[in-house]
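Protocol step 4 of 5: obtain the predicted structure for the target chain.
Materials: sequence only (see below). No template structures provided, no constraints applied. The aim of this step is simply to have a reference model before the mutagenesis design in step 5. Sequence pasted as it appears in the construct record:
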Amino acid sequence: MNEQNMQEKRDIIKFENVSMAYGNGNLALNNVSLDIKEGEFVFLVGGNGAGKTTLTKLLICEEKLADGKLEVNGFKLHKIRSWRIPKLRRTMGMFFQDFKLFNNMTVYENVAFAMRVIGAKPSLIKKRVPVFLDMVGVGHKSDSFPNELSGGEQQRVAFARAIVNNPDIVIADEPTGNIDTEMTEGIMELLIKINKLGKTVLVITHDDQIVKNYNKRVVKLENGHVVSDKIGGFNV
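Step 4 output (structure tokens):
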């Protein structure tokens, strides 16, 4: 997506002078201002303690904003009511490093669960789940349980679950942390594919190699500050 098209897109994520403190008074985020456009692909990088986890928790309302303003997909998180948080989360897909699959559910049931919790009709679940399992290459494993899958297959199931509700924003938290190079390339291809469908993708990572391999926007956090924001990879 070129620069002119990006300028025409709305801000789907907007941090405005956001600060968050730990219990000991140290700042996890310090006066962060950051805009992410609809349809962007953004890497969020930084070392331990940089503020990545806090920023992510704010986006999904696992942490309550202390100071500043934050808007996500039209929801004003600095003054959001608790009953609206599930509505916000329905517009987002979270993809975790440790997959978070239910071991007592089949592959099909794990993905279907994400649709059931938002009240999707059984007929829609039956229609969509196989499509998304096929999209990520595990349709033939529909009746298997997570412990019967390889790590890469589990990861693909988790990815299908994250996108099955057609979210506007996909947040991938350390998606390549525990996998080999081939699996890393596979999951990045899926993220690029979703982005090309117009979805906003935010990848939180320590992996400087994948950042270098893709000519995408990279936002670097350091000690709670945004210290760099540019297109193209660099050492994290």
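Step 4 remarks: The helical segments are 3-8, 52-59, 85-89, 107-116, 122-135, 151-163, 181-196, 208-213. The two ends are 24 Å apart (CA to CA).
Proceed to step 5.
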